[in-house]
Amino acid sequence: MFDFTSDQFGQLNAEDYDIQFDPGNANQIVEFVKSYGHQGRILEFAIGTGRVAIPLVEAGFELVGIEGSAEMVDKMRAKPGGDVPSHIGDFAYTEVGGEFDMVLLVYNTLFNLTSQRHQVDCFKNAAKHLKSGGRFILETFVPDLSGYKDHQRVSTQRVGEDHAWLESALHDPLAQKFHFQRIRITNEGIKLVPLPMRYAYPPEMDLMAQLAGLQCEHRFADWQRNPFTANSKSHISVYKKA
Ligand SMILES: C[S@@+](CC[C@H](N)C(=O)[O-])C[C@H]1O[C@@H](n2cnc3c(N)ncnc32)[C@H](O)[C@@H]1O
Fold first, then answer.
1. Which ranges carry the Methyltransferase domain (predicted)?
2. How many of the other CB atoms lie within 10 Å of CB of 117?
3. What is the pLDDT of residue 113?
4. 46 pocket-lining for ligand 1 (C-beta < 6 Å)
5. At residue 130, does pLDDT exceed 90?
6. Candidate CATH numbers 3.30.559.10, 3.30.420.10, 3.40.50.150, 3.40.50.300; the one for domain 8-143+199-241
7. What is the dotted CATH code of the domain comprising 152-197?
8. CA nearest 67: which of 83, 80, 50?
9. Is the CB of 90 under 6 A from ligand 1?
10. Are the C-beta atoms of residues 180 and 195 closer than 8 Å to each other?
């Protein structure tokens, strides 16, 4: 089993992040953010390659990012509009000057923090940066253990004439952790792309939010505000500072 420092995801994924990972929902996120007001200061935790930040700045928001990986930020800087002010550091602990109307943490990235302590500290850091009435907006998947047997599973992600991409995973129910190994097999060889994640269900996140002085205001199943139900695969939770 393994853990990551805050720069390791980027070292492994920055090169092809935009090709392999983009879920194509940045415009939906911009519309969602706008529904809370068309102006304001946003702090994005884990700004990455600017997938969401650049469209938000183009929509008129003032945005500052925190990111663990200089490689990811370099990719953002190479894009048109990618000159978004960003601080390199762990988003659970890095402090940025001033107060914000909104803190954003999207695309399951809370789970990149692989202990409960680290996740609680992330909520506290979000709350610290918010002005009174400000919102912490969080997107994660809802953990689904149904594919695991004996705490492990292997699935096929892609198959082509010259490649097969597999995902091998171990589940640690005591630590609420998944240890993923993405195995990319081609004629040139095998590339391993590991990823540890510590999952939490929404009620645990609500408790973390309370510890940080935040209350859950809304929870949706997706960025189009569809209702969150027992069958939802992911959630957008909106936490408000009193
Ligand atoms: C799944 S990507 C999401 C990037 C971007 N928010 C997006 O939606 O495209 C996860 C990002 O979190 C960053 N990251 C992971 N752990 C971090 C930490 N502890 N502190 C700061 N950044 C971290 C990675 O470098 C990567 O850019």
1. 42-134
2. 10
3. 98
4. yes
5. yes
6. 3.40.50.150
7. 2.20.25.570
8. 50
9. yes
10. yes
